[in-house]
Amino acid sequence: MFSNETSGETTATVHSSPLDLVASAFEIAVDLDYASSDEGLAGTVTKVSEVVDRLQVKLAELVAEADRQGVHRVDGYTSMTSFLAHRGRMRAGRAKRLVADGRALRHMPETVERLRSGRLSLDEVRPLIAAREAHPDEFADHETGLCDAVETTGWVRDARKVVDYWRQAVCGPGDDRRRYEDRALHGSFTLDGMFDFSGRMPGEMGKEFLDRIESAMLPPADGDSRTPAQRRLDSLFDIVVSDGNRPSKPTVMVHVSADRMLSGEPGIGEIDDQVLGFSSIHRLTCDAAISRIVMSGDSQPLDIGRSTRTVPEPMRRAVIARDRHCRFPGCRRPVRWCDAHHVVHWTDGGHTRIDNLILLCRHHHTLIHSGFGLNGSGGDPKFTRPDGTHLPNSPPHRP
Prior knowledge:
Elements (H helix, E strand, L loop, with lengths): L4 E2 L2 E2 L7 H13 L9 H30 L1 H4 L5 H8 L4 H14 L3 H9 L4 H13 L1 H18 L2 H15 L2 H9 L2 E6 L5 E6 L2 H13 L12 H13 L10 E2 L1 E2 L2 H6 L4 E4 L2 E4 H8 L3 E2 L22 H11 L14 E5 L14 E5 H7 L4 E4 L4 E4 L15
Parallel strand pairs: 5-9
Antiparallel strand pairs: 1-2, 3-4, 6-7, 7-8, 10-11, 12-13
Helix pairs in contact: 2-5, 2-6, 4-5, 7-8, 7-9, 8-9
């Protein structure tokens, strides 16, 4: 209730429902002048994103309650999904996911509390929802710990990795078998003369699937206007019709404790961003080119001084093992998009060795050569903007 008194006169009292207040706040936000706000444009974008995410969480909770009460049946809708698709004017896929999110969150009290407070985003929570759907009893026992781990990572993509580690540790080989049994490939001809197909498979199968496609892809020739997606499909087709001739074996980078791997005990490791049990790692690497990375000793030459500016492949693999992605602050572009960059440039006396090399994606590699600064070492880089101010550091990847 709002009351305004001026010159002894009282204006009409206005009663506003919570929804009216939300709508009024939205109208104010539409006309928001970020230039006059204390946060500036970057801060305003972040704040609005947080508010939108928390409203999405509230919407999911409301949808779950409406679904429980059967609100959709009052107007003859067959499901809450069809109700949302029509009345909410959204795609069926989004409506279905919203209903699924709402149903799952009813059984995830700790997760919901952190969503409401803004400590977790809905995108960070979706891997947790998938974990609960697959293993409800185990998830209930570990919900708080999983929320803590996801909140600590600070990256949406790492939330999936947290859940993958949990699945391997808690569910073991049984979860591998379940995911393997869920594999499928579907295809059909369409009326416009095309062929549509889709499929799903365990992560380690998907890793090998993509590796073999990409290893068979030739660099685009001059004038080649195909998109990356078109080139991948052409590569897949060439493999399928090649009469069994296989492309060159992919080189697989395995991040795992050597002692545990050799002991024969159950354990967990990573291949790229896929968290796998040792049995899956052995299966995936049995027909791949494998090279171990030695950070010191005589097995691989990791420091060749000033003899060349070209980064040898063994040294590049060692840099990849340390960095795992682009090291520019805020960037996580994968290894296949990155170059090994000299922190102190070779022409300025820099050595081609591990502590003078760092992974940068093509975009940020270009920025470093176009005004942005980089000092320090490969293990502890210091980035600066063109005006000399420092950017927050992005640490090496830690599994």
